[in-house]
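Regression test attached.
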Amino acid sequence: MLPLTSDSPACAQVPTLAVDADADLVAQLQGGSEAAFRTLVDRYQGQVYRTAYSLLRNPEEAEDVAQEVFVEVYQTIARFRGEASLSTWLYRLATSRALKNCRRARAKKRFAFLTSLLGFDNKALHEPPDHAHPQALLEGQQQLQLLLAHIARLPEQQQVAFTLRHEQELSYEQIAAVLDTTVAAVESLLFRARQTLRKHVKPSFRHV
Amino acid sequence: MSDFDMRPDADSEWEALLNQLRTQPSAQPRPFFYGRVQARLAAEASRPWLPGWVRRPAYAVLLGALVLALSGDNAAFASAAAPAAATAPASR
């Protein structure tokens, strides 16, 4: 649950209520309440899954990461001291585990390439199949696919900052809390990410 | 800078693309997610606590060989030294 940014008094109370509700939830979890764990999963499964999915672009891997995150929360909630909000902690766990999966997948790909070069296996290397229907790949969609491909190639910190900002719509302050850095550093990460992406993603549909 | 950045409508096109990214259909986990998390927790709980590398036979064998090699040195030296001392001719 993301804090709202409106200045209205009614909206200003919502984050406080959410924080209070999370504090209660954490207290119940630390007391070993099964019902509290279910509430936590119900409340945050979408956020955790979407964060993992935006970095992995694979439903099975995102599901796996989301499950790992909740298992870790269950096992380590006793050590949660509340320095960061519950939501921030979950974003941190989801992004770090998703990035770990990305690194493992890249290493596996490199190893498979090496073994294929050395002739240790005869399996042909192939890219994951693209199930998109050709007609669905309209020009706008192609641009989006191109953008997603280049987001995946950004340095990790930039990738996380960019997806949290433009897909999860987090504020700079929230991103800084997730990355455990300053707002200025987030601005710099986003600036460099946008610069790189704009250099690589050129809208071709207006060139004709 | 690329053509994209030089053209006057580049900013609006970029914003449109970012908007498209934002308004993608929201990804959601499959139904009964909680049940699968519970199953995973149960599996984790029933797994014996050992570091991952210990559970790989190759590492376990390597560790065993290393322990044998290191622990065998002193015994071998001691047993080799004892008969040598016993059978050594008296110095003149």
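Expected vs. actual: identical. Chain B has a mean pLDDT of 76.
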